[in-house]
């Protein structure tokens, strides 16, 4: 592999995400696209946001995202298939949690990007409100 095909970390934050650069021609790019496809639904984004603090039951998730338990269960099945969430069964109830922090980080970054696109939010690099017109 040529050195020019590697995507190097360009900031301290990027470096914290990975100890080594990820190649542009990484074999995981196709799988990453599938992850983004799974995350391209607003209900699934809301489910992941709701699960960031910890596990929740289907009924609690349904209340948090404003959908029926049946609809939430269907979305959870897709997220389980993608290995983004896992289920723990206790009696006749299922409790869901994120498999790891990665999906939570992706969704959080996407929401922060949406805030920037709309010109709202904070300057996340410095922790203070952005000046008007920036």
UniProtKB/TrEMBL annotation:
<keyword id="KW-0804">Transcription</keyword>
<dbReference type="InterPro" id="IPR001845">
    <property type="entry name" value="HTH_ArsR_DNA-bd_dom"/>
</dbReference>
<dbReference type="InterPro" id="IPR036388">
    <property type="entry name" value="WH-like_DNA-bd_sf"/>
</dbReference>
<dbReference type="InterPro" id="IPR036390">
    <property type="entry name" value="WH_DNA-bd_sf"/>
</dbReference>
<dbReference type="InterPro" id="IPR011991">
    <property type="entry name" value="ArsR-like_HTH"/>
</dbReference>
<keyword id="KW-0238">DNA-binding</keyword>
<dbReference type="InterPro" id="IPR051011">
    <property type="entry name" value="Metal_resp_trans_reg"/>
</dbReference>
<keyword id="KW-0805">Transcription regulation</keyword>
<protein>
    <submittedName>
        <fullName>ArsR/SmtB family transcription factor</fullName>
    </submittedName>
</protein>
<feature type="domain" description="HTH arsR-type">
    <location>
        <begin position="24"/>
        <end position="118"/>
    </location>
</feature>
<dbReference type="Pfam" id="PF01022">
    <property type="entry name" value="HTH_5"/>
</dbReference>
């Amino acid at each position: 592999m040529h050195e020019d095909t590697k995507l190097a970390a360009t900031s301290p934050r990027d470096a914290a995400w990975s100890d080594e650069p990820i190649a542009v021609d990484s074999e995981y790019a196709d799988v990453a696209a599938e992850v983004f496809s799974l995350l391209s639904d607003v209900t699934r984004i809301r489910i992941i946001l709701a699960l960031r603090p910890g596990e929740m039951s289907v009924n609690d998730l349904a209340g948090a995202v404003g959908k029926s338990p049946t609809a939430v269960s269907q979305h959870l099945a897709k997220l389980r298939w993608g290995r983004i969430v896992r289920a723990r069964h206790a009696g006749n109830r299922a409790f869901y949690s994120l498999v790891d922090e990665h999906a939570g980080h992706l969704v959080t970054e996407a929401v922060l990007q949406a805030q920037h696109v709309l010109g709202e939010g904070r300057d996340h690099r410095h922790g203070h409100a952005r000046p008007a017109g920036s």
